Amino acid sequence: MIKKKQLESFLQQVPDFDGKPNWNLEQHMTPPSFASEIIQLILNEESLENLVCADFGCGTGMLTAGLLCCNVAHVFAYEFDENVAQDTLQTLQEMHDGAFDLIITNIKHHKFPSQKVDLILMNPPFGTKEANIDTVFLLQAFQHANGNVYSIHKSSTRQYLEKLAIENKRTFKVLKEFEFPLPKKFSKYHKKDLAFTQVDFIKFGYVKQQEEKQDIQLN
C-alpha cells in the first residue's frame, strides 16, 4: 500500500487550474495533502487494487491521479469544462501510465453505460452557486456504482445527506471532518487570503441486495 507522504509528494505535480477558475462551476483544486489523506482513509476501508473507478467532476485530475497510484484497473474521469479537461488529460498522461478515460460531459444529463463501476471517488460542487448540484452528483453516483461511493460535502449538509443515503439504500459513514481551504481567488466567497469551510469525507456504502429467489436443491 502506498504511503501517505509518497502519494502526497507525487500529487504535488498536479497543477492548479490555468487562469481564473470558473466560479459558477465552483472550481477549486483539491490540495495534494487532502487528496492523499482521503485516499488513505479509503484504503483503510477496502483495497483499491484492480477496481474500475470513476471520478465525477475531476477538475485538475487530483483524485484521478491518486486512484491511479493505487493499482486500480481503470479510472473514468468526468469533467464538464472542456478547457480544463484538455489540461487535465495532458497532466495525467505525463504523470502516470495507468489506464484511464477522460469524458467531457455534464454529469446532470450524462447517460451512463449499463456496465457499472466498482467505486466512485469525487469532490463535487458544494451547491453554493447551483443549489442541489451536490445531490445530483450523488444520485448519479448511486446509480452508476456497484460499490461504495466516497465523496466530499459541506458538514452543514450532513443530516440531509444521511437521509438521502437511507432513501437510496446506502449506508452512511463520515470517515473524517476536515477544514477545506478556499483561496482568495474565490472573492465572492470571502475577502481573506485563505479561508476554510468545514467538510465531511463520507462513505456511502453499497448494500448488496439479496436475491429474492433461492436455488432449490433436490435430494
From TrEMBL:
GO molecular function: nucleic acid binding; rRNA (adenine-N6-)-methyltransferase activity
A Pfam short name: MTS
PROSITE patterns given in the database record: N6_MTASE
Residue ranges of domain Methyltransferase small in the record: 50-142
Alphabetical GO biological process terms: rRNA methylation
Similarity comment: family membership: Belongs to the methyltransferase superfamily. PrmA family.
UniProt name for this protein: Methyltransferase-like protein 5
Gene3D superfamilies: Vaccinia Virus protein VP39
Taxonomy of the source species: Eukaryota, Sar, Alveolata, Ciliophora, Intramacronucleata
Superkingdom per UniProt: Eukaryota
